Amino acid sequence: MESLNTNTIKRSKWASDESEEDIKPQEPKKHKKKEKITKPNSDSTSAVRLATISAAPPVSAPAPAPEPEPVQTQTQTQTNRIPRPTSPPPNPLLSACRSVDCYERLNHIEEGSYGIVFRARDRETGDIVALKKLKLEKEKNGFPVTSLREINTLMIAKHPNIVNVREIVMGNHLNQVFIVMDFIEHDLKTLMTDMRAPFFQSEVKTLMIQLLSAVSLMHENWIIHRDLKTSNLLLNNRGEIKVADFGLARKYGSPMGNMTQLVVTLWYRAPELLLGAKEYTTAIDMWSIGCIFAELINNEPLLPGRSEIDQIDKIFKLLGTPSEEVWPGFTSLPHAQNVAFVKQPYSNLRSRFVCMTEAGIDLMSRMLTYDPARRITAEQALKHPFFSETPYPKDPALFPTWPSKGSGEKRKVHSPSAPQGAHAGMDDDEDPGLEGTLFAGQSESTGFRLKLA
Ligand SMILES: Nc1ncnc2c1ncn2[C@@H]1O[C@H](COP(=O)(O)OP(=O)(O)O)[C@@H](O)[C@H]1O
Ligand SMILES: [Mg+2]
Description:
Bound molecules: adenosine-5'-diphosphate, magnesium ion
Shape: globular
CATH superfamily of the largest domain: Transferase(Phosphotransferase) domain 1
Number of strands: 11
GO cellular component, one term: nucleus
Structural class: alpha+beta
CATH class of the largest domain: Mainly Alpha
Low-confidence stretches: 1-9, 20-88, 410-453
Enzyme class: transferase
Strand content: 5-15%
Number of domains: 3
Keywords: ATP-binding, Kinase, Nucleotide-binding, Serine/threonine-protein kinase, Transferase
Helix content: 10-25%
EC number: 2.7.11.22
Strand order of the largest sheet: 1-5-6-4-3-2
Family: Belongs to the protein kinase superfamily. CMGC Ser/Thr protein kinase family. CDC2/CDKX subfamily.
Largest sheet: 6 strands, mixed
Radius of gyration: 23 Å
């Protein structure tokens, strides 16, 4: 058995990111019950640790805290650079961190824009966890503000439907920082690509309620996620959503300061961002949630634009071209003057979702409302009649379970480059006779086939 002492380990398996180390997950070794002396209660200790650098208000704090100017934060982080173990004074966040070697690396899950995610086992407790290795290699200016925001936000936003961060651990190099989270079996994007049939409406309702209640908590605390999409929503095998990836999240307040418009993955990006609005609010997350809602129902992305112009075009074709009447101030937005938009006088949303009830279409339209000031909030959405009509939301405990790709329970995917808009991905070994249930060959306007919940 490997010792926890890093000196005795020849070369940490965490030293490289390559998938060579995608070690075959072994059956969990019988966990030896040791005297519990060293393991800190990760939640509380790490939250306390982070609180010392973030001075973040607790989740219940009602007042907005304007974010410091990025320049200031950067300077601050430079002075707080990660110290070598011998050089005092220690950074209050990182000096208390345990080593990544406390975790046994199992397999690589995914590499995204801000980090590489691995599945690992806590050597002491045997718990299976996910480690997100932050991409700091190219950082010249100290700890990047995006990573600080991600850690900070995850630590303060505690909610049953937000992924739980256990602790932050360090590798052998100063640029190796890992966020240790509970391991969650699926992300909705991968799962929906593999599912043989879409979610039942009763399941969509449960997922939407969970998502809305997590986002409602964030927005109450002036946190905008800024990258809500199906790949950032994790789902465990107990029917519980966990919002993840706070790499773009930030606090907002008054005055707003400079906020980049280059946020949110294109397909989920609100029209005010696409049209160059200088200021935006939590309403941008609600637009993304509207797109996610539609995707959960139809099992295909609602607005898969190929470019920003194409994205705007797709939005206008679906929802009708906006006017000053429905969206006051629309014509004065920076990009609204430069582009000749398609003239679409009415919304086609209803014909795209033929099996949805009036209440369902109403909720979706309120999320996909052009004017951000009139767009429904997460709190209002939770009270919408759609959630209290039949079919009722399904008890999460009654959700089906699926094999977890992140756990290495992979089925061979025939075509890894299947188009994003494709209906469910067909695996080699799947019964082609099921193709019909995946809406294969369905045109944009033919709606969807609903199974009765
Ligand atoms: N806690 C977790 N448990 C299991 N898988 C996870 C977890 N966190 C992230 N993942 C997987 O890794 C992917 C990338 O993680 P994410 O935090 O979104 O990183 P990025 O910022 O690079 O997009 C997710 O889409 C998901 O598939
Ligand atoms: Mg992501």
